[in-house]
Amino acid sequence: MRAYRVTVPELHEDMATALLWEAGTAGIEVGAASEDRVSLLAYFEEDVALDLLRGRLDGVTIEPVPIPDVDWVARFRESFRAFRVGGFLIAPPWDRPLEDEGLLLVDPGRAFGTGTHETTRLCLGALEDRARRRPLGRVLDVGTGTGILAVAAARLGAAFVVASDTDPEAIASSAHHAGLNRVTLHLMRCDGAGPFPPASFDLVLANLTAPLLVAHAPGLARLRTPRGTLVLSGLLETDLGDVQGAYADLGPPEVCRDGEWAALLYEGAAP
What value, to the nearest 5°, has the Cα angle with vertex 24 and ends 148 and 212? Predict the structure, then answer.
């Protein structure tokens, strides 16, 4: 494990956080560095070059720092408590509330997606909105992480849910969360659109990063049915132009925002 202290002006915190996730960080601790600067302590499995931060952010400083021998997953689990996101109540198994309506059980670990991040909240909101308007039908969650979005789709009545990821740890985490929440997920280890034929899904979720959304645009765009919905999340406001350009053939999207983060919703034409 390696740690790097990244100090940036406060207004660049969200952008720096997004770039650290793109670089493969295993976790970030946020602290105050001074009155108008923040300190981001980012952990990585191995040495990593963070030149992309220097190239895209002004006033950034980066230094390697020693870290204690600590079980960071256990430390995070200790502080994780139940909270609401829209109509969902997200809770760990050890803080399970008595009420069960809208309950999503999450066992925090290494995979991304516990419901606390704006990008995950945007996707959960899009799922709820779509489910209110019509049945979810067949759903694909690309880059599923913990599987929380796939589980949420199943809880909202989706007829068939596929959760895909390239990381075997994410697939194992998704299987674990399917069992915790007593739903059925069809798990597949593959990249992007993978082996799925065109027009296979009524709803496609892709909570990735902006570069991945652009790179996988041709594959993801072909997966939805003619009336289907494509939800793209994981991007900052500053990424909107690049991502919309990559999906221009789908027409203008609905843009949803949560702070500095955004999601794009592409709806198929009605018959």
Answer: 70
